Amino acid sequence: MGQENHSLFSVVADGSITTPMGFTAGGLHCGLKKSTRHDLGAIVCEVPAAAAGVYTTNVFQAAPLQVTRESIGSGGKLRAVLVNSGNANACTGKQGEADAYEMRARFAEAIGVSADHVAVASTGVIGELLKMDKVRNGIDDLPGRLAGDRTGADHFCQAILTTDLVQKMVCVELEIDGKRVSVAGAAKGSGMIHPNMATMLGFVTTDAAIGSEALQQLLRQTTDLTFNMITVDGDTSTNDMLVAMASGLAGNNELTPKHASWEAYAAAVRYVCEALAKAIARDGEGATKLVEVQVRGAVSDEAAQAIAKTVIGSSLVKSAVFGADANWGRIIAAVGRAGQPVNPETVDIRLGDIITLEQSRPVAFDEAAALEYLKGDTVVILVDLHMASGQATAWGCDLTYDYVRINAAYRT
Question: What are the angstrom distances between the C-alpha of 379 and each of 165, 292, 404?
């Protein structure tokens, strides 16, 4: 397999969520979407997998989140996750809850597992009841579409998309206790992206032997540094969740924070989640470029995170990037309103390698070079506060005319 080497792990270029041992996946079109694109998919593990989940903090939480919390909370194990797109099953009352539980029970029966070993996720339009006749037929057909190869993974990725333009999937491998261990992930997300958890659906598969408690701890810590550091439009959805499943079939000794390879495994999981988070930001609705904001020299990492997310979420900064306008004033204004300690006399700002502000004073720079840089498909903004050692990185995208066009007609 083609690989990109890192110091602690290797990226498997043609890997997928079915690369870790024990996993199959698939998807199909059941009729929830007006188009013929897939809208129902599943990941299935051949053994009870250690499971963990992180969920949206939006007060209005969709019915599938309740089902998934209950499934994972009943024993920390999952055999499958069932996902539909085209309908969020959110704000749908008791009927929506009943539908989510029916989806869980019907798919569990279809694959021959206990209902509490199935998680459910939905994404799409809020406030509409699921067309359960179509969902039932799709669930009955889905087991026959599951496969343990890249095709099965691709069909699953197609099934979870809404306004996304591209599939998002990544896989890495590393050696632990003399065994090859794989970590893979898939995600969807393009709009309603302003996480406090993560505004998206994400799924991580791994064949590492790891307990559910250790996996939950690692997933939460990793989310705070990756999915919680992206924004597209400042809106946190009702349906977002990140679910991880570990089959344990790699045969390594059980991973805990005391294991000699814990840091290497944590780095692999972080790489997968960060790659997916950046892919979501790059694929923001209407976006033409990925924007990365690096904050250095803050009084703490938490302060740096707050400042980075304020800058990346600024509509004025995002608009300036779209217009290739080197308007550093919008950046420093966002820094100043982030609610964190800042010395107004010591701030540096760079656009890539181009310094525009030094010690809070304007610097003469080549406007033509800045324009050319901002026209690229990736823009890095560096803010150095020169106060302490706190640092953080956030990711987002530019704000374009197409974002308004897409969301003005989302239901139609």
Answer: 20, 6, 22
Residue 162 annotated as part of some ligand binding site: yes
Q: What are phi and psi of 224, to 5 degrees?
A: -60, -30
Q: What is the pLDDT of residue 355?
A: 97
Note if 206 is an active site residue. Answer: no
Q: How far is residue 241's CA from residue 257's CA, in Å, rounded to a whole number? A: 24
Residue 357 in tokens: 């502000």
Could you tell me the pTM of the whole model?
Answer: 0.83
Q: Does 285 carry a binding-site annotation?
A: yes
24 is in an annotated binding site: no
Q: Which domain holds residue 144?
A: 3-282
Residues 172, 309 within the same domain? no
Choose among 33, 1, 37: nearest CA to 19.
1
Number of H helices, E strands in the chain: 11, 16
Assign residue 208 the CATH number of its domain: 3.60.70.12
249: left (phi over 0), alpha (psi -120 to 50) or beta: alpha
9 and 121 co-located in one domain: yes
> 282, 301, 320 — which closes off a domain?
282
Strand bridging mode 201-206 / 241-246: parallel
* Confidence at residue 193, expressed as pLDDT on a 0 to 100 scale: 45
Within this chain, do residues 154 and 74 fall inside the same structural domain, yes or no?
Answer: yes
301 and 274 inside one domain: no
Q: What is the pLDDT of residue 235?
A: 46
pLDDT given at position 238: 62
What is the CATH number for 303? 3.10.20.340
Q: For the chain, state the CA radius of gyration.
A: 22
Catalytic residue among 19, 123, 199, 393: 199
144 and 238 assigned to the same domain: yes
- Looking at 245-327, list the stretches that DSSP marks H as alpha helix, in order from N- to C-terminal side: 262-282, 301-313, 315-322
- 315 in the same domain as 347: yes
With a cut of 70, which residues of the chain have pLDDT below it? 1-5, 163-165, 190-199, 232-239, 284-286, 402-403, 405-412
User: For residue 241, what pLDDT is reported?
Assistant: 85
Please tell me whether 34 is known to bind a ligand. Answer: no
How many structural domains comprise the chain? Answer: 2
Beta bridge partners of 40: 28, 84
